[in-house]
Amino acid sequence: MNKDFQIVGIGNAMVDILARCDDAFLSDAGVEKGIMQLIDMDRAVDLYSRIGPAREVSGGSAANTIAVIAQLGGRTAYVGKVKDDQLGQIFTHDLRAIGATYETSLAPKDHEAETGRCIVLVTPDGERSMNTYLGVTEFLAPEDIDDAQMAQAEWIYLEGYRFDGPDSKAAFAKAIDACKGAGGRVSLTLSDPFCIERHRDSFRQMIIDGVDLLFCNRAELLSMYQTDDFETALAQCGTEVDILACTDSENGAHVLAAGERWHLPVAPVEIVDATGAGDAFAGAFLWGLAEGHALDICGRMGNVAAGSVIQHIGPRPEADLRALFEKGGLV
Amino acid sequence: MNKDFQIVGIGNAMVDILARCDDAFLSDAGVEKGIMQLIDMDRAVDLYSRIGPAREVSGGSAANTIAVIAQLGGRTAYVGKVKDDQLGQIFTHDLRAIGATYETSLAPKDHEAETGRCIVLVTPDGERSMNTYLGVTEFLAPEDIDDAQMAQAEWIYLEGYRFDGPDSKAAFAKAIDACKGAGGRVSLTLSDPFCIERHRDSFRQMIIDGVDLLFCNRAELLSMYQTDDFETALAQCGTEVDILACTDSENGAHVLAAGERWHLPVAPVEIVDATGAGDAFAGAFLWGLAEGHALDICGRMGNVAAGSVIQHIGPRPEADLRALFEKGGLV
To answer: For position A55, what pLDDT does the model report?
Structure first.
């Protein structure tokens, strides 16, 4: 293939507000630990007033994935809606500065919503609890999807979180049609167990109809297939997609494809902040795949990238991933 | 004294945009290394488009100092102008969240300027090169100074950078009068050699007329007294203020007061990012002084705080400074 883009990601565009807290704070503030919860602007203002000093960094699940691909030198673009405000400028700057293409039209300055943000509370165990005000990213619509861009994608990468919002499914359907119609392939991440609760049937239909590569973690896979048995869920899902890449925290990752299966363990590391671990895994995996590496190597690349991002505060890798791949004998 | 505030700081309120770069980038972009340079919005937009991915954290020299005092549990307030925009919300949140009082009226949403920001470029040697768009902080005026608040300050702390701007000197004069009239004392930081070039005569007059405690570093002291001889400058300045606290990078700090002099060395540390080192020194020193510690102990506290802040990216301490003081036998 000789397309403009190896991977085009579509997701919820947002800036992360990262702050540390203890478990008692989460309880007092009514924040459920370890998941992504949607909040409205009033709740965002209230919660923000209660957290300690924070730092702001570009986030958004698929955007983090695309940032990894761009850092590795991949040809990649991102589609997600921000407003023409200061946080929107931060988001678009950071993506473009790392080498990704960003052409989504900005929501105008008089849009009643603002650029989305996620208050990420990091507890001493490194777990992150996310509180997302979607803002204008909720309104990404089919007209924001450029058929020509999708047709120029070897892969598109769809973020499960992006299913929240009025026109989300129509936007994804348009992207899938344009990509597949031009011979491209479709990857999806399930994002979060509670996201699956909201959209299980739609996810399932999309997986069966058109997903070639599925990313998820153990909890998401179990939720998706409504079972407590990991092996059952892996086996079932493995029959429904060409490639399944399922992360499993300190147990590493499982990759299934064409009747083959690899378990790719990880070395233990101290977790400072788990934010972005799954995103980084997907980015490195997709880059490896687009570059023609074997699936087990792609999985190992994903492990290295995830292991790097959890060792510091913030959702995007700060280390030179290519250097880490070289050190690990992966490239 | 039984005043509401131990220290009230007045300075340029801004959010830092922190990015790494190499020395070649500084040359190509026309950024002078190691100093603070003022830039306009056009230059800010152009420079921002050229730097890599960044992170945003609240900054501002005096605000960093006040944040240190608040972290240590001091009774402290900050006066500096931001706009009612997203960066302004970040700045005020972070100060209040750490325990400082912030009551300055916000510039309205229709003000033509935005909240100030500083593009801080950090080179591999840990040096920081600052590019400041003042924005609305330039317009802090006498009417933003609350006489009653200044009268309730044991100390006011004035940031030299804040001399840039049309009403700055009048605002400082008002603050000094209100503070001194109520028996309070005045401290000043010289901020930057090039800032001194712009305002040497005004600084000198203020030092002679009303500054009780002066903070500076070696380069600033030499610039202030237009000499190459450090000892001469120290001696001269020592006759003009009650207390002189002069930092000297890896050589530690010199404190002069009432004919006495202390040299307070520092242990060598790896410098990741020098941003905020002087601010942290001043904050810890002022807190120590307000708490009644001896001047040499205040200087050592300043060294500990500065040494902590330079070991990570970002201008405000992330470590528990009180715990570090306890470990060092200072409290």
So the answer is: 96
Q: What is the pLDDT of residue A7?
A: 98
Please, are residues B38 and B116 in contact by the beta-carbon 8 Å criterion? no
Taking an 8 Å cut-off on Cβ atoms, the answer to whether A97 and B67 are in contact is no
Given this model, what pLDDT does residue A3 score? 97
Q: Which residues of B touch A52 (CB under 8 A)?
A: 97-98
Kindly provide the b/e burial profile for residues B16-32, where b requires at least 16 CB atoms within 10 angstroms of the residue's own CB.
Answer: bbbbbbeeebbeebebe
pLDDT confidence of residue A166: 86
Name the burial class of residue B181, with classes exposed (0-12), middle (13-18) and buried (19+) by CB atoms within 10 angstroms of its CB. Answer: exposed
Number of domains chain B contains: 1
- Cβ distance A94 to B53 less than 8 Å, yes or no, reads yes
Q: What pLDDT score was predicted for residue B1?
A: 56
CA nearest A99 in B: which residue? Answer: B52
Strand order in the sheet with A260-264: A101-102, A76-79, A5-10, A153-159, A185-189, A213-217, A243-247, A253-257, A260-264
Question: What's A174's domain CATH number?
Answer: 3.40.1190.20
pLDDT in tens, B250-274: 999 999 999 999 999 999 999 999 9
A126 and A273 in contact (C-beta within 8 Å)? yes
User: Which of B30-39, B55-64, B134-143, B162-171 shows the lowest per-residue confidence on average (mean pLDDT)?
Assistant: B162-171
Residues A61, A67, A70, A76: is their CA dihedral positive or negative?
positive
Compare all CA atoms of chain B with the CA of A67 and give the residue at the minimum distance: B53
Cα B9 to its chain centre, rounded Å, is 9
Candidate from A49, A52, A98 with C-beta closest to B53: A98
B38 forms beta bridges with B132
Chain Cα centroid distance, residue A158: 8
Token pair 């001047």 is at which residue?
Answer: B295
Report chain B's mean pLDDT, rounded to a whole number. Answer: 96
- Tell me the average pLDDT across B74-84: 97
Each residue's pLDDT tens digit, A88-124: 999 999 999 999 999 999 999 999 999 999 999 999 9
ipTM of the complex: 0.94
Q: Which residues of A touch B94 (CB under 8 A)?
A: 53-54
DSSP-derived secondary structure for B18-53: EEE--HHHHHHHTPPTTSEEE--HHHHHHHHHHS-S
pLDDT of residue A164: 86
Mutation pick from B20, B57, B83, B86 vs chain A, by most beta carbons of A within 10 Å, is B86
Pairwise CB contact (< 8 Å): A94 & B56: no
Q: What CA–CA distances, in Å, run from B274 to A266, A313, A321, B53, B62?
A: 35, 19, 26, 19, 16
Tell me which residues of chain A have a pLDDT lower than 70: 1
Q: Whole-angstrom Cα distance, residue A195 to residue A107? A: 25
Find the domain containing A310 and state its range. 5-327
CA A260 to CA A317: how far, in whole Å?
Answer: 30
Region B40-69: what's the mean pLDDT? 97
Cβ–Cβ < 8 Å for A34, A329: no
